[in-house]
């Protein structure tokens, strides 16, 4: 062993052990069978920085959007120029078509039953009842059944109630089918004429401004006087039928089993009563009154009286429009 003068350098006579340098590898050309490794597919170091910056921008913008959505859900604009209103039906396209198909099947089954299966023992008796109810036949000494008279006149009030539920908030903004022809036909055909519109209905309702509310027929249908008169008339008819004795109700039951007119009209009353709670809910959500008026939904199950009471207590559209805050031009 030789020790040099420099204390930091030590040399040995034995051969030094030095690891061999790795040979450089030439990259193989890419062919159709060559598979890229994960290290070769790794992106450049500066790309994640751009992703982070873009995510930061998207996060800030999404936060504003979420805050706006929460404010709209908390204090959403009522049905008017600044909002389309709630609308109860909605949902996805598949659910809309499923509901429409089911309603169309119901309507087709009802039409089949009314024209082919409904009892019709004495057709001349239906014509006689119709003439008496329309006051087309003079006094011949025959007194009409009190329950039948009440049913007949309350079926003339049902289309008015549906008009107050459908025309303001039950119209379709996604289809060009107007609601007023079906309402006019319902004064003759009842629920049998309204069901095709239920099939074609596509919420939400179109916008309504203050000028529309002050015009006919919305000014008449939105009036609390109209709602109060319809409730009073319906309540009087129901009391009139309820005060009838047992023999009168048994006579009406016999008419129901043998007369097509009375049988079909009675089913019409049940259909009107069955669909009314849904349209009460639709109108309630469109007026942004569900939180305060949800207790009226069980009340709406009461035939005629429940929906009529709701129309008296619900807020008018004109009062909702006055609550819409003005949006400054700079905020847009």
TrEMBL record:
Residues 82-92 have a biased composition (Gly residues). The chain crosses the membrane at residues 101-122, 142-167, 179-200, 220-240, 261-281, 293-313. Residues 1-16 have a biased composition (Low complexity). The keyword Membrane applies. Coiled coil: none annotated. Residues 63-74 have a biased composition (Polar residues). It comes from the Eukaryota. Keywords: Membrane, Transmembrane, Transmembrane helix. The keyword rRNA processing does not apply. Residues 1-44, 63-92 are annotated as: Disordered. This is Cardiolipin synthase N-terminal domain-containing protein.
């Amino acid at each position: 062993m030789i020790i040099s003068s420099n204390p930091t350098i030590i040399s040995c006579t034995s051969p030094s052990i030095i690891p061999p340098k790795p040979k450089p590898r030439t990259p193989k050309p890419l062919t159709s069978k060559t598979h890229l490794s994960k290290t070769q597919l790794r992106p450049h170091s500066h790309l994640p920085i751009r992703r982070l910056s873009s995510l930061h921008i998207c996060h800030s913008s999404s936060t504003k959007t979420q805050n706006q959505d929460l404010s709209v859900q908390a204090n959403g604009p009522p049905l008017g120029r600044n909002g389309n209103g709630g609308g109860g039906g909605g949902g996805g396209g598949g659910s809309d078509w499923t509901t429409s198909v089911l309603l169309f099947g119901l309507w087709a089954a009802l039409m089949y039953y009314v024209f082919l299966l409904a009892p019709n023992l004495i057709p001349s008796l239906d014509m006689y009842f119709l003439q008496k109810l329309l006051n087309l036949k003079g006094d011949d000494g025959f007194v009409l059944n009190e329950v039948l008279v009440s049913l007949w006149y309350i079926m003339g009030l049902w289309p008015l109630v549906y008009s107050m539920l459908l025309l303001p908030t039950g119209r379709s903004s996604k289809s060009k089918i107007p609601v007023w022809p079906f309402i006019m036909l319902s004064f003759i055909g009842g629920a049998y004429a309204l069901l095709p519109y239920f099939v074609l209905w596509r919420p939400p309702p179109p916008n309504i401004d203050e000028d529309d509310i002050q015009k006919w027929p919305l000014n008449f249908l939105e009036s609390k006087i109209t709602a109060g008169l319809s409730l009073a008339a319906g309540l009087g008819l129901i009391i009139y039928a309820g005060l009838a004795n047992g023999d009168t109700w048994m006579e009406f039951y016999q008419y129901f089993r043998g007369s097509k007119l009375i049988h079909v009209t009675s089913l019409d009353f049940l259909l009107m009563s069955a669909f009314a709670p849904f349209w009460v809910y639709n109108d309630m959500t469109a007026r942004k009154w569900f939180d305060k008026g949800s207790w009226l939904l069980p009340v709406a199950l009461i035939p005629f009286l429940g929906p009529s009471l709701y129309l008296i207590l619900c807020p008018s559209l004109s009062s909702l429009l006055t609550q819409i805050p003005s949006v400054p031009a700079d905020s847009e």
